[in-house]
Design a protein that fits this description.
Elements: H1 2-48, H2 52-55, E1 66-69, E2 72-75, H3 77-87, H4 91-94, E3 96-106, E4 111-121, E5 127-138, E6 141-149
Parallel strand pairs: 1-6
Antiparallel strand pairs: 1-2, 3-4, 4-5, 5-6
Length: about 150
């Protein structure tokens, strides 16, 4: 009888946990997704205006930021900005940026995973690719902490 009571109690606790987790997902993710989409839209606008520093405002300003691109892993906000400036030195190189979100998934209350594609329309030749971002809520703001773009 004790084993059955323990089993029932465990099942109830697990059910409460899952209901709580699912409730958080259905309530919080809509606002968080809207905020993250707004950040990406603002980044596209800043990039398209040739404002790479403004584009970088969506990233965590930390030496722990990770950017993975065609040249490998880069650590740090400043190094990532410097690489962007080197690779996209003029408005002809930055062009017009458009993001398309393919998938957004919460990874808990403080993390989001975003997969999407980008398209650059530019005078020096168009470019496109895919990206995977990890956002973290830091001091109440969503910031990109890992960017894997190819």
């Amino acid at each position: 009888m004790k084993k059955i009571n323990l089993l029932v109690l465990t099942a109830i606790c697990l059910s409460i946990f899952l209901i709580s987790w699912n409730s958080w997902d259905s309530i919080a993710t809509k606002d968080d997704e809207k905020t993250i989409k707004a950040i990406l839209n603002q980044q596209a606008k800043e990039w398209s205006n040739g404002n790479l520093e403004g584009f970088m405002s969506g990233y965590w300003n930390s030496e722990q930021l990770k950017f993975i691109g065609s040249k490998g892993l880069t650590y740090g906000w400043q190094q990532t900005l410097d690489n962007y400036k080197k690779g996209y030195p003029t408005k002809n190189h930055t062009g017009e940026l458009e993001f398309k979100i393919i998938d957004m998934s919460p990874l808990g209350k403080e993390y989001y995973h975003v997969i999407g594609s980008y398209h650059l329309t530019r005078n020096v030749g168009n470019a496109e690719g895919i990206f995977s971002l990890v956002f973290k809520k830091i001091d109440g703001e969503w910031k990109i902490i890992i960017d894997h773009s190819s």
